[in-house]
Design goal:
By secondary structure, the protein is an alpha/beta fold. About 35% of the residues lie in helices and about 20% in strands. Its EC number is 6.3.2.10.
Length: about 450
């Protein structure tokens, strides 16, 4: 964050000052929307959510060191009062970017955004000062918060951009215009909000490449036909990545290394280098290639890129997060979110990790699957059966029951159980698990199975 006085911030966002003793007091640290994450010298943005009103935590934020609160009403402590806090954060972020000059990299896709962002950040930060999205803060609040962490020394600004509906990426790229745009894939995540199918999702995701300048770069997945179709929607130079032989950044000799980690030969226009990821699952190849494609157009050589990928570690919780318990049970927490594509990848990765060990799947609902939801859950049940998981615990009513029924009818050897809620899942899993088991816990975040995964990991 570039230091700015409260007076200056008020002018930028159109705020009025309330309870402010010193209008020239400087804000020197990033902003936060969670009062528990306020740092001394920063701003606390009081947003109103479905269950929590940040204005109620304003006093605590000031006590925690915030210089002032960005609020939509007076809160009895120093505040910058605006009509719309979200809009004000965006205006402040755009103002900051006009006064620094990082290379802005936007990335989007239905699956793998956070893992790819984490890999890319770890490659780039070995080369120059890099700021990247924290966790999955990729929406109209999270993106400005990321931008506001940047300063004059920042060379690369890596922004994960989520799209829940059409127009979201147009808004986000308006706040932080990217010079480099990366599109990972088009799947069924958020299809309920976007339209009838993948073509509607592709229309929304393609807003990123439409925002790129003529001297920018669009990195497109040559293995995804919907992403390939975005080539005509951008003025930027295109670089293709993927496992396709035609891709300029691609993988050769893909193989499974020790403990389901993926190894391959990275091929870029500058040469070849071996990569062995410290992440499980063959689907990680695509994520690594996406990161490598960005690094390639930024001028890094193949050896530098491979070294960064080899050294990279998982940074974000709840995404194939592996915990080895003292009793030999392995918990794989992949419960941050779920859709059919990520569910398939998670199930296959855990089965590869397990080898001959007993496998248990604790699965909840995949959200936002529209009219195809029941059929897609049944498909996941059949996949559990086809992969020969030993135990399935389906959590919740409705679609998870369809998953359980499909698994049971497809392979009677799978021990199938249904439970009503997370508490039931935790009790049953605790009773069924045996030393040596490998357990996958996965569902959309609203199912709350992250609680179950963390409890099982700490047992």
């Amino acid at each position: 964050m570039i230091p700015m006085t409260l007076n200056k911030i008020a002018r930028v966002v159109g705020a009025s000052l309330h309870e402010v003793r010193d209008p020239e007091a400087p804000v020197t640290a990033p902003s936060a929307v969670d009062s528990r994450e306020v740092v001394p010298g920063g701003l606390f943005a009081a947003t109103v959510g479905a269950r929590v009103d940040g204005h109620n935590y304003a006093a605590g934020a000031i006590a925690g060191g915030a210089v002032a609160v960005l609020a939509s009403r007076p809160v009895g402590v120093p505040a910058l009062v605006v009509e719309d806090v979200q809009l004000a954060l965006g205006l402040l972020a755009r103002h900051l970017l006009e006064h620094i000059s990082p290379v802005v990299i936007g990335l989007t896709g239905s699956v793998g955004k956070t893992t790819t962002k984490d890999l890319l950040a770890q490659v780039l930060e070995r080369h120059a000062a890099t700021v990247a999205t924290d966790r999955s803060f990729n929406n109209e609040l999270g993106l400005p918060l990321t931008v506001l962490r940047a300063d004059a020394a920042t060379r690369y600004l890596v922004l994960e951009m989520g799209a829940g509906r059409k127009g979201d990426l147009t808004y986000l790229t308006g706040l932080a215009p990217p010079q480099v745009g990366l599109v990972l894939n088009v799947g069924t995540a958020h299809v309920e909000r976007m339209g009838a199918g993948p073509a509607d999702v592709a229309e929304a995701k393609g807003e990123l490449v439409e925002a790129l300048p003529a001297d920018g770069f669009a990195l497109l997945n040559a293995d995804d036909p919907y992403v390939m179709g975005m080539a005509g929607r951008t003025k930027a130079q295109i670089l293709w990545y993927g496992r396709s032989a035609e891709a300029q950044v691609r993988a050769g000799n893909v193989r499974m290394a020790d403990r389901a980690r993926t190894a391959f030969e990275l091929v870029t226009p500058s040469g070849r280098a071996p990569v062995e990821l410290d992440l499980i699952g063959e689907h990680q190849v695509s994520n690594a290639l996406a990161a490598a494609a960005v690094a390639t157009v930024l001028g890094l050589g193949v050896a530098e890129i491979a070294d960064g990928l080899n050294a990279a570690r998982r940074r974000s919780a709840g995404r194939l997060e592996i915990v080895e318990r003292p009793d030999g049970i392995t918990i794989v927490n992949d419960a941050y979110n779920a859709n059919p594509e990520s569910m398939r990848a998670g199930l296959r990765a855990v089965k590869a990790l397990a080898g001959a060990r007993r496998t248990v799947a604790v699965l909840g609902a995949m959200g936002q699957q529209a009219d195809a939801s029941r059929a897609r859950h049944a498909e996941m049940g059949r996949l559990v059966a086809g992969l020969r998981f030993d135990v399935l615990i389906a959590v919740g009513a409705g679609d998870p029951v369809a998953m359980a029924e499909a698994a049971e009818s497809s392979n009677p050897e799978v021990a199938v159980h249904t439970v009503a809620d997370v508490a039931g899942a935790l009790r049953l899993a605790g009773a069924l698990l045996e030393p040596g088991d490998v357990v996958l816990v996965k569902a959309s975040s609203e199912a709350g199975l992250g609680v179950c995964a963390r409890a099982l990991a700490g047992a």
